[in-house]
Structure formats: C-alpha cells, structure tokens
Amino acid sequence: MRLNGKVVIVTGGAGGIGRATVRKLVAEGARVVVADLALDQAQAVVDEVGADAAIAERVDVSVFAEVEALVARAVEAFGRLDVMFNNAGIAGGRPLLEHDPERDYFPMIRIDQDSVYFGILAAARQFVAQGSPGVIISTSSIYGESAAENAFAYGAAKAAVISFTRSAAYELGPHGIRAVAITPGRVNTPMIQRLGPELGSLFAEQQASGRLTEPEEIADTVAFLASDEASAINGTVVHVDDGYSVFKQRFA
Ligand code: NAD
C-alpha cells in the first residue's frame, strides 16, 4: 500500500498501459481518475477496480480546457491531486516525403505532445495551490530518443515529452514537484496488437528478452515512480524498454 491516500489521474486509462496502471495503483491504495476519450471503456475499468477507488472521466487531452477541467474534477471527487500520469497517446505515421502536415504532423503533435504540456501545467498549478508535493509521470517512448521508420511526428512528440520533463523538474522542483518520463519499448497493448502478429513478433525479437513487455511491467514502474520511494528520481528518463535502447545494434 505504497500509495495509500494518494489521488492519481491516469490519462489513456482505458488503454493497455493505462488500464494495467490503474489496477496497480488501486492495489497500492490510491484513488484514481480513469481519464480517456473512450468513456465506456474507462467506466469498464472503474467497474473492475471498484467505484470506491476510482471514477471515469471523458477527456480529450489535446484540449487544455478539458485537461484543466479534469484536474478540477479529480479535486472535486477526491479532495486533492497527488500524481498526474500523462499517458494518453496515439501512434502511427507515414514516410516523411508523403507527409501532409495537416494530416500527418499537427494531429500527432496535439495529442502526443501538447497534451503532456497541458497535463504538466494543470497538475503543477493544482499542486502549488494545494501547497503539497506532487509527481508528474509522462509516457515517452524509445522513439523519443532514436530515429525510426515513419516516426517523424511521433518521435518529435515523444522527444518533447522528455524535454518537458527536464524543464518541469527544474522549474517546479522548488515547489516539491517531481517530474519523470518513462520510455517503454514494445508493449503488448492494443497499440501494438493493431499492427498484426508479424510486426508483433519482429518487435519482440528486438527486445533483450525476445518477448513483448506486458503492460503490468510498465504499471509496476509507474507505481514505484509515483511513490515516496522514488523521492530522488527527478527530471530524468526511466527506460522500461527491456534493453531495446542498449541492445538494438545486435538486431541491425
Ligand atoms: P493504447 O492504444 O492501448 O491506449 C491509448 C489510450 O489513449 C486509449 O485508451 C485511447 O482512447 C487514449 N487516447 C487517445 N487519444 C486520446 C485523447 N486525445 N484524449 C484522451 N485519451 C486519448 O496504447 P498504449 O500502448 O497503452 O499507449 C499508452 C502510451 O504509451 C502512449 O502514449 C504510447 O505512445 C506510449 N507507448 C506505447 C508503447 C507500446 O509499445 N504500446 C511503446 C512506447 C510508448
């Protein structure tokens, strides 16, 4: 029960990593706002973990007013906010030379990049208003630190998540706020499953273990980072990529 009494917002809470994280946080004693564009699926997560521990909220994280309202809703429901997990996102992309910026760049940047800025800003204002410490964890990706096929916009957004995290830790540290980015590798969620079994197998081979990471393994890391046990982890990137970033040359 490392998170007893803590109030956490999980964006993308209805997706693979989000859902596993909500389960883990509740098991550790937290009360959680399961926030997602897909309200029915967010509600299904709440039904599973129990309405005393969680609520479902519809949010489009690419709209600042909606993220602000989400934070206000968490405070209304649970009295405070302790941890913001900026995790909602989309993947995909096209070769650069085929780009239409309106289709291939701006939507991705709004959802995967601007959303994290909005989440950091809204949560930090709440932490400061409460006069209490807080933690902001944001989901980047191995693509935020390397080049990859068809990832021009996705990689840029995920690199920005790391930069936001560093700046947030620097600026907000004096208020007792920690910011950490995580870089999952290949995680067994709908995001990867949608790409089909062939690509799934290739992705698995690119990891040190030869298998995809399970979302529960990411959730365990998030729960640790959210806890006071991680009090000295700030402004940095925690790689939860099963060796991908270190070993990928082996597979070239
Ligand atoms: P997922 O598709 O299972 O879940 C993503 C969730 O985000 C979905 O529930 C979706 O409804 C929600 N969402 C999308 N756009 C939204 C919006 N505008 N507002 C609110 N909610 C929105 O994917 P996942 O694998 O669980 O991904 C979670 C995060 O992890 C993403 O940021 C993704 O980029 C990142 N990531 C995933 C992998 C992987 O291999 N699965 C690897 C690295 C990073």
TrEMBL record:
Query: Which terms in the Gene Ontology molecular function aspect does this entry carry?
Result: oxidoreductase activity
Q: What EC identifiers does the entry list?
A: 1.1.1.-
Short name of one Pfam family for this protein? adh_short_C2
Sorted alphabetically, the keyword list is:
Lipid metabolism, NAD, Oxidoreductase, Steroid metabolism
Q: Which InterPro entries match?
A: NAD(P)-bd_dom_sf, Sc_DH/Rdtase_CS, SDR_fam
Name the CDD domains on file: SDR_c
What span is annotated as the signal peptide, if there is one? Answer: none
**Similarity-based family:** Belongs to the short-chain dehydrogenases/reductases (SDR) family.
Q: What is this protein called?
A: SDR family NAD(P)-dependent oxidoreductase
> What organism is listed for this UniProt entry?
Luethyella okanaganae
